[in-house]
Design a protein that fits this description.
The chain has 171 residues and is an alpha/beta fold. The protein has 5 helices and 5 strands; from the N terminus they run E-H-E-E-H-E-H-H-E-H. The protein folds into 2 domains: 115 residues, Rossmann fold (3-Layer(aba) Sandwich), CATH 3.40.50; 52 residues, no CATH class. Helix 1 links the parallel strand 1 and strand 2. It is globular and about 50 Å long. Bound molecules: nicotinamide-adenine-dinucleotide (NAD).
């Protein structure tokens, strides 16, 4: 199968790209090299230096390459930095993923794997963590930081946001 690996110049993406090649698949990598490294892309995978946020360009690339499946690892992933620069993280990770999904739709690609985070399982009771493990994120300070961030956006910046405790709009 021809697989597009986004973020294939990064840690998890490059290892996945190599595993796919070892399993006999063909691999195309899209990476903007913002945190990744050209040298990490395994031999045998074609690298396109490109932002996943450009849906039109990605759709064209998928059609030209005959991509049949997408594995999405292109993201910014530093928790501390994400709290300091939330809008940059939302734009890159959320808007980027949406653009990628639009490109998949345009190119008729229906197989999509998203690399989430193992942090949703908290401190695991066994390793490796099975997918059936209980979802138990153990970072309450993140929740507090999110609330402080919502408060700052709504009170200081004048944004309208959803109250995390109740689905009503705050002013
Ligand atoms: N590292 C882990 O232990 C781990 C565990 C579970 C899930 N994840 C998730 O896997 C994903 C990748 O993590 P990683 O540790 O490999 O990070 P990484 O920084 O090593 O790799 C991310 C890659 O994405 C690229 N990238 C970022 N934004 C891009 C964009 N807009 N367009 C194109 N390329 C872009 C970067 O250049 C980099 O090569 C993240 O979503 C992370 O949350 C990581």
């Amino acid at each position: 199968m021809k697989v597009l690996v986004t973020g294939g110049a990064g840690y998890i993406g490059s290892v996945t790209a190599q595993a796919l090649l070892d399993a006999g698949h063909r691999v195309v990598v899209v990476d903007d090299l913002s945190t990744g490294h050209r040298a990490a892309v395994p031999e045998g995978a074609r690298l396109h230096v490109q932002d996943v946020g450009d849906a039109a360009a990605l759709g064209r690339l998928m059609a030209a390459e005959g991509v049949e499946a997408v594995m999405h690892f292109a993201a910014l992933s530093l928790v501390g930095e994400s709290m300091q620069q939330p809008l940059r993280y939302y734009r890159n990770n959320v808007a980027g993923a949406l653009a990628l999904l639009e490109a998949c739709e345009a190119a008729g690609v229906q197989r999509f794997v998203l690399s989430s985070t193992a942090a949703v399982y908290g401190t695991p009771s066994s390793v490796p963590i099975p997918e059936t493990a209980e979802l138990r994120p153990d970072a309450p300070e993140l929740d507090e930081q999110m609330r402080a961030w919502y408060q700052r956006l709504t009170q200081e910046e004048g944004f309208y946001m959803l109250d995390p405790d109740a689905p009503t709009l705050l002013e």
